[in-house]
Amino acid sequence: MKHVTILIPEGHTSLVNIAGTHQILNQVNGIAAQFGREPVFEVVLAGLTKEARQDTGLFTVTPDCLIGDIARTDLIIIPAIHTPWPEALERNRALVPWIRDQHRNGAEVASLCIGAYLLAATGLLDGKACSTHWVHAANFRRTFPDVNLVDDRIMTAEDGIYTSGGAYAYLNLLVYLIEKFAGRDVAVVASKVFMIDIDRDRQSPFMIFEGQKDHGDDRIRQAQQLIEEKYAEKITVDALASELALSRRSLERRFKKATANTVVEYIQRVKVEAAKEQLETTPKSINEVMYDVGYADSRSFRQVFKKVTGLSPVTYRKKYSRELAVA
Predict the structure, then answer these.
(1) For residue 51, how many C-alpha atoms fall within 13 Å in the half-sphere facing its CB?
(2) Rounded to two decimals, what is the model's pTM?
(3) Do residue 26 and residue 144 come from a single domain?
(4) N or C: which end of the chain has fewer CB within 10 A?
């Protein structure tokens, strides 16, 4: 049986992450029993205090024990912490060495949504892939530059360190962990009982691109503004560099450092974001939308659109169009 510790941090934490994980992993034991198997998980809630009153004042979580009471655990679950960082770290600093010590003793560690901040503070994510809520991607990259943030992914798994994307993406990570520890058959039943899409692997369709501008490089902010104003035109890196009186190499280096995107990636994402809005709100054909955002080749447009969103333009429209929803 796997000993699972769900941490109860101080501050404002995701009760959905805590209660949902506790319920699903415990119910897996019942599903395993239907297959004639022993219980899979022993789940405990562990905190820094005997009662963790939420900053909202609405709820109090009562842990089963304190972290010091746990000599060894197999899997640590870190829920999302909504208290602003670094206040959240200051209030939960004692969790950092405890997580590191447990990991050295063989524990695996999973962060849910922006619980990735606390996991990254342990250093266990350095050099590893990590996902978190896409809204926090720019700030996370600034805060933890040694972590390989892949903000389009629903989840990551590397050397016993797991992360999930935004909000309810934690459900997909739970199904992955259930499959790893209980088997595919139990995971399939759990996904059906809780109606979790077992095959979803990207959060790209949910992302709204807003270029990172909180970086202090005025020339690059000017470049971003030009791209966003002229997205309907054919924009080249050379032309942009010339307009800004920069060498192409200097523009590309500074742009990547400031925004975490290459110039070409940024141009593509701005164009795709404009296309997404038209697909959601207008009856224009795919080709009309394509021309409006500055593409002339339908194959190229569809490739870029799918690369950014994970969906074809047709599928995206079917999923999000207000026109179709009203119809």
Answers:
(1) 5
(2) 0.77
(3) yes
(4) C
